[in-house]
Amino acid sequence: MSAAVPELKQISRVEAMRLGPGWSHSCHAMLYAANPGQLFGRIPMRFSVLVLGLVRVPLYTQKDRVGGFPNFLSNAFTSTAKYQLLFALKVLNMMPEEKLAEALAAATEKQKKALEKLLPSSS
């Protein structure tokens, strides 16, 4: 069974207010700033992201193509939050769409391998 991906759509404040009483409104802030630093003294960081004041998102991928952003996406956090993060990064042009797709594919592969170790197939 696959989880349904919620439809995410950027709407204006006016449109949000017209949704009526059957809808809950949620306001999230994503703050980011240019970061000239280097992780471990050698990996350029480019941006630091702070989501809702609670989560720091690494916007880089290490040479192994798993460390950094893909590894972050493979962590267990609410799936809706993951899709909201990917949507925001795309809409705000903070990361190229192809890099988002690569990171998500690497994260999915990592999760698949972890599940295979936990639940070996019976042959």
Number of strands: 3
- What average pLDDT do the residues reach? 75
Order of helices and strands: HEEEHHH
Which strand order does the major sheet show?
A: 1-2-3
Radius of gyration using CA atoms only:
17 Å
What fold name stands as the CATH topology? Nucleoside Triphosphate Pyrophosphohydrolase
Keywords: Nucleus, RNA-binding
InterPro entries: NudT16
Protein name: Tudor-interacting repair regulator protein isoform X2
Pfam families: Nudt16-like (PF22327)
What's this entry about, in short?
By secondary structure, this protein is an alpha+beta fold. It is built from four helices and three strands, in the order αβββααα.
Task: Describe the fold and architecture.
Pfam families: Nudt16-like. One of its GO terms (molecular function) is snoRNA binding. This is Tudor-interacting repair regulator protein isoform X2. The structure is a single chain. The protein is α+β, with helices and mostly antiparallel strands and 123 residues long. It has one domain (23-115): Nucleoside Triphosphate Pyrophosphohydrolase. It contains 4 helices and 3 strands, in the order αβββααα. Strands 1-2-3 form a 3-stranded antiparallel beta sheet, with no helix packed on it. Strand 1 and strand 2 form a beta hairpin. It is flat and about 45 Å long. The mean pLDDT is 75.
